[in-house]
Amino acid sequence: MSMLELNEQQLSAQLAEQNVTMAEPVIVDCEQRDALLARLEEQKAAFKESPFISRELRRVNLLKLEKVLRENQSAICEAIAKDFGHRSSTETALLEIFSSIDGIIDARKQLKKWMRVKQRHTSVWFWPAKNKVVPQPLGVVGIIVPWNYPLYLAIGPMTAALAAGNRVMVKMSENSAHLCQVLKDAFSTQFTEDELCFVAEEGNTGPIFSSLPFDHLIFTGSGATGRKVMASAAKNLTPVTLELGGKSPTIIAPDYDVKKAMKRILGGKVYNAGQTCVAPDYLFVPEDKLKQVIKSAKSIIKGRYKTTDHPDYTAVIDATSFQRLSDTLDAAKAGQGEVINLIPYSEPDPQTRRFPLHLVVSPDADEVVMTREIFGPILPILTYKTLDDVYHFIGERDRPLALYLFSNDKELQQTAMENTMSGAFTINDVMLHVAQHDLPFGGVGPSGMGHYHGREGFEAFSKMRPVMHQSKLSAISLLYSPYSGFARRVVNYLINRKWSKYPN
After folding, report:
1. What gap in Å lies between CA 60 and CA 498, rounded to an integer?
2. Strands (E), 181-237
3. Which pTM value belongs to this model?
4. What is the pLDDT of residues 357-390, one digit of tens each?
5. Architecture of 32-245+454-464 per CATH?
6. Known catalytic membership, residue 243
7. CA 26 to CA 32: how far, in whole Å?
8. What 8-state DSSP symbol labels residue 477?
9. In whole angstroms, what is the distance from residue 38 CA to residue 161 CA?
10. Residue 490 and residue 301: Cα distance in Å, rounded?
11. Which of 277, 367, 456, 459 does the annotation list as catalytic?
């Protein structure tokens, strides 16, 4: 049966389940659904015609990907600035265009190594058979892209999927409408739609898209939406990679220079106005260094921004996010913590959606600022007496996407790593692990599942297919049923031939 003949009631039920929080019933846009299914069917048919793309053609596809980004830099920056309301072209060029191109170049360089057939050990009982693992393309990969880094979080998975020899459908966020159009137009000059296509958000596109029977689906976004995506994909047994978020803790250890730490922490926090899934979400500092931390923070930000009208200060994405941050700040002011505006000549402006960076000092653990991911320019600061207290606090909460430790003490670094769990662990900086091509990027537990970037991305979008090649000479036939007395003696010997040394 064609995918276009999927039962409409079944799809409606899937969409309804994904929107359980909506008061109104879900209305399925049949025309949109049919168009997406047709596009997927077209890509699947093209894949069946050419199920294994050569290394040279994959390199060409990566070169075309790079070419599009290089030739459309200005248009990309302008589109993202429109989508945000304001974002510096330099920030977009650094965090999204450069990072994307650098990842493409690395994939192209590593492709021969990644595609290499890997010989595997053969158990001595099966000699002279041979084993190997062959990476093969999965087929069609679906990518659901968030709005906060809409280029980088589209191109990163796309690079891995194309390197692995797949075809790709990309669903952009409703907050990235201008960028989506630019990418559609730009990539249509290099790729046919049965190779690569972009899908704009049109009201209910997300739930429909995640219900399609992709060969792999990757979603980047909130944990709440990630659960719905996973539930929808499960109906097709579609494997998923979920890159979610959470509250990434940062720790300044007693031995580390406070000013240097705060310079790096605030540098990462201000990027994209804190709208980053791996941004430092809250900060632990030694009790006796709290005043120094606050003083350093004020000095550092004062030297960078007089007001939020600075051309390199990014706006909050939309009115809903701005209101959420305003409510979070108001709740913090009503709580027990001290709220400090680090750009005191500016207040949150709903017209421009510029939101100055704030500290919330010593909030209560059950306040909103400490229970929900902030995803904006607000940084809570907690003090500690012992690092064991810090590890306990972190361990009692959801496992975060990242954890940052500032310390030059190698023993302390090891202890912190062993006593915590997170998607990534960065020492003496924040966020930079995401830009390392040879490090897998992904969460753990509520912060996500699966990885991509580098080899891990290539393997995530490949079937690492085990292949066993039996030899002309094989004694396995001696162990076929019905079992002879010889076979029984062989089995007894295999099990009891040598006892291991067990602990007492």
Report:
1. 55
2. 196-199, 216-220
3. 0.92
4. 999 999 999 999 999 999 999 999 999 999 999 9
5. 3-Layer(aba) Sandwich (3.40)
6. yes
7. 14
8. G
9. 21
10. 75
11. 277
